[in-house]
Amino acid sequence: MESDCRIPVACCRPRVLVLHALFWGLVSLRVFGAALLSEEKTAVVKSVITPCWLLEEFVVTGECVRCNDFDSKSQAACRQTGYVEKVNCTKSSREEYKSCRSALMEEHLFWKFEAAMLGLTVLFAVLVVVRQRWLDRLASEKVRRQIESI
């Protein structure tokens, strides 16, 4: 009678189990240690560079507009979406620029998504038809062979 266990017996030896535990422990320590170190570094940087609209209430004073070429390279807010709006922070009364998503950009993204979904629908519909014809041909050939063998 065969065993249903798919793990080889050699993998269950104590020495192998300890080596596996040690290896995966070191890997996870390396990964989590790197994540913790990067969080500490970004926390220090974020406290210095954090815009006021992330920390306090703000009022939008200028509508969402597309950045020109110069602003795209000089302002950090323009680099994210290519659109920016002017905001006024209430507590500190500072005026800053905040990245935003325009209705025009959202509409273009929506139609790109719709076109991609339509294209995938047509592609998979064609694949289904081709596969069904292939399976029908195989089935008819099998029936033909069975009839010929009689």
TrEMBL record:
Protein topology in the membrane: Single-pass type I membrane protein
Gene Ontology biological-process annotations: mitotic cytokinesis
Primary subcellular site in the record, as a coarse category: cytoplasm
Entry annotated with the keyword RNA-binding: no
Subunit and interaction comment: Interacts with AURKA, AURKB, BIRC5 and INCENP. May be a component of the CPC at least composed of BIRC5/survivin, CDCA8/borealin, INCENP and AURKB/Aurora-B.
Protein family (similarity comment): Belongs to the JTB family.
PANTHER family listed in its UniProt record: JTB PROTEIN-RELATED, PROTEIN JTB
Free-text function comment from the UniProt entry: Required for normal cytokinesis during mitosis. Plays a role in the regulation of cell proliferation. May be a component of the chromosomal passenger complex (CPC), a complex that acts as a key regulator of mitosis. The CPC complex has essential functions at the centromere in ensuring correct chromosome alignment and segregation and is required for chromatin-induced microtubule stabilization and spindle assembly. Increases AURKB activity. Inhibits apoptosis induced by TGFB1. Overexpression induces swelling of mitochondria and reduces mitochondrial membrane potential.
Protein name: Protein JTB
